[in-house]
Specification:
mainly alpha; 0% strand
Length: 552
């Protein structure tokens, strides 16, 4: 029995340990993927520099082409320029592959003519001109091609069939027909491509990605090995990482899918590839995860490069996704507006409660003042009695003869005075207790207490503003003339800065600002006018600039 208990305890500890390790690995992977997202964002921000580098490479090739006279060199340079434009500028790619076709026909080079026609077919397919692509591809005879061109031909036919299948979603029979052709051409690629061609490896991915088992795992491991060999900023790396992500998606390994899809996007952006599938997949994923800002950024980038590349297929997908993202933005804004309404209702409720509290405090203050007046009257009476007693004492002290009955009268008078004093004291005490003046003294603050409260409010307000916008003062000073800059001491803002801090936060109405800062409306008007005079901007420009302070 004891051994059984120990065994169960050990098993539970083992499960907890495994769960902890799994959570640690998951957290580490999430941090690594976030670092990759940051790298991708940085590349997108600097995409103009990458485009400039690519344009310089293309211009160098064009210069060499202008200097070249030999057919071989001209054809080679035309193809090199076509490869640069292939997924960058469809019109230019079409121009140079057409020039390659003219050269091949001029010198009667059949293989190069086929190669140029395959380039034209690729451009048509990538741009969604599928009827033109079909016409070009069906004009070629695969049986007369050398093996290396035949595998390329089958690969492009497979891509063309996948696009035709996508466009035939409304026709089940046609959709199935193109699906069968897609499978047929995939098999043809495997039969004609050599194992050292990337096309051969990717064809195996597309053929076996839906078939679980050792073969799919072997292909995945082969891709991982090949990925280590490729340059991470090349188009081949992008295609490989994208296909590897597809395999991990079939294995339900979400973390590795995301990692490889980001790596594919990084390589695409670095290589200035404008026919990007990875960023669209990432934008869709981020949209589903509720990360609308980053999803919108990637989707917009894909749309921009899709327009530049003139890819109808990509633009069609991007427009659908952007409509969904835009609708989500509308829904989010509506929800935020509803939350703002609730917040304003809550503030209004608190304001009503505060006004009621102030009403009761004022009424209690009046009672206190009345009690103080009564106390003052009582003190006057006491002073009068004390004066009478002092006079009586003087008379008694100056009298040389005091008889027994007179002494008795004095004692009686004193006793009566004491009783009256005691009775009046008790009466005052009862009134004080009934009015709860001691509690009111603690509750009702003096003017110094009010000042302390306002000071604490300003300190908290300044702390919040400087925490939200650490560079607020520096940015605000940039709107003023140099000689009019405002200096902040000990982390405290002045009234001028507080007013414009509220404007920066969206509170532009002077009455609301005055109410918030507990100052007069004229003070707000004066400070805003003084600050505007310190700037060289117009009133509208200055107000707009203040609202943009500390925005990235």
């Amino acid at each position: 029995m004891k051994n059984h208990f120990c065994l169960n305890l050990f098993f539970l500890l083992y499960l907890f340990f495994c769960a902890g390790c799994k959570q640690h690995i998951s957290d580490s992977a999430a941090k690594a993927n976030e670092a990759l997202f940051t790298q991708l964002d940085s590349l997108i921000d600097n995409s103009d520099k990458l485009i400039l580098q690519k344009e310089e490479r293309i211009e160098a090739l064009k210069h060499s082409l202008r200097q070249s006279k030999a057919f071989e060199k001209q054809y080679e340079l035309n193809q090199a320029i076509y490869q640069e434009y292939r997924v960058y500028d469809a019109d230019s790619a079409m121009k140079y592959t057409t020039q390659s076709l003219d050269l091949a026909r001029q010198y009667h080079d059949k293989n190069r003519e086929i190669e140029s026609l395959l380039g034209i077919g690729f451009v048509y397919t990538a741009n969604g001109l599928l009827s033109q692509a079909s016409e070009v591809m069906h004009s070629l005879c695969s049986s007369s091609m050398p093996r290396y061109l035949r595998s390329r031909y089958y690969g492009q036919m497979r891509t063309l069939c996948s696009r035709l299948q996508l466009y035939s979603l409304g026709d089940d029979a046609l959709h199935e027909y193109y699906g069968q052709l897609y499978a047929l051409y995939s098999d043809s690629v495997l039969q004609t491509a050599t194992p050292d061609e990337p096309r051969y490896l990717y064809s195996r991915v597309w053929k076996y990605q839906d078939v679980p088992g050792a073969q799919r795992i072997a292909i995945r491991d082969e891709l991982e090995k090949e990925k280590q060999r490729l340059l991470p900023n090349s188009r081949n790396y992008s295609i490989l990482a994208y296909n590897l992500a597809l395999l991990y998606e079939k294995e339900h390994n979400h973390t590795k899918w995301l990692e490889n899809m980001i790596l594919s996007g990084i390589a695409d952006v670095y290589a200035v590839n404008r026919d990007i599938g990875s960023l669209y997949a990432l934008a869709s994923y981020l949209y589903e995860q509720g990360q609308l800002d980053r999803a919108y950024r990637y989707s917009t980038y894909c749309s921009d490069i899709g327009i530049a590349f003139k890819s109808r297929v990509r633009l069609l997908h991007q427009q659908k996704l952007q409509r969904r993202i835009h609708q989500s933005y509308i829904e989010r804004d509506h929800m935020q507006q509803e939350q703002l309404k609730l917040f304003l209702l809550f503030i209004s409720f608190l304001t009503v409660v505060l006004l009621i509290a102030l009403f009761f405090l004022r009424r209690q203050t009046r009672r206190r003042r009345k009690a103080l007046v009564e106390l003052h009257v009582a003190n006057g009476r006491l002073k009068s009695l004390n004066s009478e007693l002092q006079k009586l004492n003087l008379v008694l002290r100056d009298t040389n003869y005091i008889k027994e009955e007179y002494i008795g009268q004095v004692f009686k008078l004193c006793s009566s005075y004491i009783c009256r004093m005691e009775e009046y004291r008790k009466k005052l005490n009862r009134k004080l207790k009934a009015g709860q003046l001691e509690d009111l003294k603690k509750m009702i603050s003096s003017t110094s207490t009010m000042s302390d409260e306002m000071k604490e409010f300003y300190e908290k307000f300044d702390s919040i503003i400087l925490h939200l916008y650490p560079d607020f003062v520096e940015h605000f000073n940039s709107l003023l003339r140099p000689e009019e800059h405002i200096e902040v001491k000990s982390g405290r803002l002045n009234t001028e800065l507080r007013i414009h801090a509220l404007i920066r936060m969206g509170v532009t109405d002077s009455e609301k600002i005055a109410e918030f800062l507990h100052c007069s409306l004229q003070t707000v008007y004066n400070n805003r006018s003084i600050t505007l005079n310190k700037s060289s901007l117009s009133k509208e420009e200055f107000l707009r600039a203040v609202k943009e302070v500390c925005k990235k």
